[in-house]
Amino acid sequence: MASSSSARRRRLQYLSPTEALEIGGGGLSLSPRVKLLLTLFRSDPAVKPIDEWKLKVALLDFLRSHPLSLSVPDDDLVIRRRPDLHKRKRDEPVASGTLYVRDLGFLKSENREGDEEDEGASRKRFVDWRITFVDRLAGIDLNLEGVKFKMTVEIPPADDFELMKKSWEDYYTSQLLDSRRAFARRPDTVVVRGVPSRWFAEPRVSSKASLLVTHTIFSTLGKIRNLNVASDDDLGVKSEESKEEIISGLNCKVWVQFEGYDDFYNAMKVLCGRSMQKEGSRLKVDYEVYWDRDGYFRSVNQKPSRNYRQDRDSSTQVLAGNVRNEPSKHQPHITFDSNGARRKRFRE
After folding, report:
1. Are 289 and 158 in contact (CB under 8 A)?
2. pTM confidence score
3. Considering only the top CATH level, what class is 2-31+160-335?
4. What percent of the chain is helix, strand and coil (3-state, nearest 5)?
5. What is the SS3 assignment for 10?
6. In 228-339, which ranges are continuous DSSP H helix?
7. Which runs of E-coded beta strand occur in the chain?
8. Which CATH number applies to 33-155: 3.30.70, 1.20.1260, 1.10.10, 3.30.1560?
9. What separation, in Å, do the N-terminal and C-terminal C-alpha atoms of the chain show?
10. What's the chain's average pLDDT?
11. Tens digits of per-residue pLDDT, 137-176?
């Protein structure tokens, strides 16, 4: 068991940022991609209406032409016009968008012996290319039928592992200085939201996420101490900038507390900058991942424990795959030992 854990940890530690990873054994995998947030401004005083389709076509032509020559499908670029453009100020954006670059095979390299380069060199190559790509894309000026646009480009914080790592290091350093403790706490809990509940459900039993199936999936990334899964109803709230609405109840939110910092670190590095896919489905799920700074499981453990009947009924539901997905603040969680077995709170 120890050797397999070490092999898994080493595998994740040296996983290239352009390499896919199978998780859970149920046909799920994490595939690499680059996500960029685009914001477009008018660079002239024109008042001509915005044509999102023409803007999209112009950007796709630029991406697919030399020197970028990127393979970007139409669906991986979304441009949306901002509402109430007639009320905006001159320096406010007129449109926003999202760009995904999923075909990163051109970044893979081999040494003279035919072996792939190590993770450090591969990550440096990837980061250098991403910086150059963002700078080049942010520096273009679009001239669409006489109307000029300029664009800003940024990487979402949840997609930048180094930025995410700095955020928790700064947070816990400040906590250490404020409390004057002899040692600083380190994060151990990953939060993943926006993944389809049916992908974490018991097949042919329920469409709701199962704790045991979810544990099987995320145990690929490290030893789990605590786990919770709930419906992500917040995704159903309509955005002010988008007319689209995601139906609530179809997505779930997962909290995963790992036994050690190394497993948490590797899980964050693997989950950042990747999409989730399932074998047999063309859907690519661009979930959101972040670390838990609110101490979710500490606050849950401070609540009064349930009685034996409640715990037994919950166990029966979990084994049957019928887990109730209630709001996270009310839903119980399951604790696992280092071997993945569920801990018993009472003698049977």
Report:
1. yes
2. 0.81
3. alpha beta
4. 35, 25, 40
5. helix
6. 261-271, 296-301, 308-320
7. 21-23, 28-32, 34-42, 77-81, 95-101, 141-144, 147-154, 189-196, 224-231, 251-258, 274-278, 284-285, 288-291, 334-335
8. 3.30.70
9. 27
10. 82
11. 998 888 888 888 999 999 998 899 999 999 999 998 888 8
Q: How confident is the model at residue 61 (pLDDT cuts 50, 70, 90)?
A: very high
Neighbours of 3 (CB within 10 A): 7
Which region holds residue 321: left if phi is over 0, alpha if psi is between -120 and 50, else beta?
A: left
In the numeric block, which tokens belong to residue 52?
């999102």
Give the whole-angstrom CA distance, residue 220 versus residue 200: 14
Spell out the domain ranges in the chain: 2-31+160-335, 33-155
Bridge partners (DSSP) listed for residue 35 = 100
Tell me the pLDDT tens digit for each residue of 295-327: 999 887 655 444 334 443 444 444 444 434 444
Distance, in Å, from the CA atom of 113 to the CA atom of 40, rounded to the nearest integer, reads 46
Q: Residue 187 burial by CB count (10 A; 0-12/13-18/19+): exposed, middle or buried? A: buried
Residue 104 main-chain phi, psi, to 5 deg: -110, 20
Whose structure tokens read 């151990």?
A: 188
Rounded-to-integer distance, Cα 167 and Cα 174, Å: 11
Gap between the Cα atoms of 65 and 263, Å rounded: 41
The sign one gets for the Cα dihedral 50, 54, 56, 59 is negative
Question: How many Cβ atoms from other residues are within 10 Å of residue 275's Cβ?
Answer: 18
Q: Using CA atoms, how far apart are residues 189 and 156, in angstroms rounded to an integer? A: 20
Quick: pLDDT tens for 96-135. Answer: 999 999 999 999 876 555 566 788 899 999 999 999 999 9
Among all chains, which residue has been given the structure tokens 């990873």? Answer: 21
